[in-house]
Amino acid sequence: MTKLTRGLVVALLLAAACTSNDAPAPDGESPVSPSMDEPSPEEVPPPSGGRDSALAALERLCTLPQPKFNQGNGAPAEGPTPPAIADVMSQLEQIRGFGFSERVVAEPKPPAEVAEGVRDYVETTFPRRFYDRRSRAWQTIGVIPEGTSIREELLEYVSTQVIGYYDTITGELVFIGTSDPSPLERVTLAHELTHAIDDQRFGLEQIDLLGAQCRDEELQAALAVVEGNATFFMLRWAQGFLSVEEQIELSAEAAAQEPPPSTIAPFIDAIQQWPYLDGLRFITQVETAGGLDAVDSVFRELPVSTEQIIHPERYPDDVPTPVDVPDISGAIGGGWKDLDVQSVGEMWLDLALSLRIDDADAADAAAGWDGGIYRAWSHGRDVAVILSTEWDAPEDADEFATAMERWIADGDQIAEVLPVDGTSVSVAFATSDEILVDLVEAA
Hints:
The protein has 2 domains: 6-27 and 51-314, no CATH class; 329-442, Protein Transport Mog1p, Chain A (3-Layer(aba) Sandwich). Helix 7 crosses helix 9 (216-241) and helix 8 (205-212) runs antiparallel to helix 9 (216-241). By secondary structure, the chain is an alpha+beta fold. The chain has helices at residues 6-12, 54-61, 83-96, 111-125, 128-141, 150-161, 183-202, 205-212, 216-241, 244-255, 266-300, 306-310, 329-332, 346-353, 359-366, 394-409, 433-442, and strands spanning 106-109, 164-166, 173-176, 337-343, 369-379, 382-391, 414-417, 424-430. A hairpin with a 2-residue loop joins strand 5 (369-379) and strand 6 (382-391).
């Protein structure tokens, strides 16, 4: 029963919007996005001085203002809490191990209003220009089809898949339902109330800050904790407080839910579901090993990589190795500008490889990850990308390189795995054979 919450919307776009519709455009450019079929004037030029690090480029590309907290509760401030909703809140406090520190008003709304609220959130929070750039990079790499817009895919997805959300900025909690909720509506409420009670105790705004700083890999890991925990306690609540008859009704309601639109790119769909699925496995293992205190400790020291989520035994000590892609745009030719930079973790690589090779083989090839980042440049319609990765051991690097060669051979994008250098593997992607030759020579 994997459905989006408002918190996950941040994760789905992988950077929590690293620019803003209200932020100034680089070099005074118009904030209006051009057609993706035409040369893109929004590409960000490098600073004077030539070569620079990928993180320096990321800092320029990531211009989202810090989230504005303490904006007041968007939920109704007055009025009694319906008894059925109050019961879920009390029951959740029992299984979560602590109580709500502030009053939460959960507002049931019809499906159309919930979907409209989330669409409005995406429209105003996720800048078109940033995701136009990222979409071009992903298309060149080959994880989404040519012409696919990440932002438009998300808007289509949320039209049918969101059944509730909790907003860490306003404290608004909305779910599809009525004041006399069905089993499915009560389960959704339990999920969102877990977000609310965790927010009050641990301050989930720290996750909004990760997104504002474009720390993609850390953001994905943190969201897996938040969504995995909410799913864990949602299921525990259902097992403890729904009757057998209600659980049967819940199964029937869940089965009747619409699947994601068939037109959604599989890679984007998989990323949307990942925080729930792997996050639940992570929280389950943490709770089994150390109880609720261990779960609470994870919120106080969030994982810093999706590797730590996929392999809980590596949390918290196995931290990523920093990886860089220097500015080689000048060696490709004149007029190239930074287009996009993104940290790339084990989850991203695993899901990407799974698009073309067996899931088990993809997981094995990504399992030795120790760090990763890509940097993309553009010149008009042309795009060049270098993906740079570090691995735990040379054999891990060799396994990933071999898997990438298989992956490239099974696709139609223009790419080449560069010679493995110890534990380092880089892959070049381009929009033409000529550009790839120049890119490989430069790299």
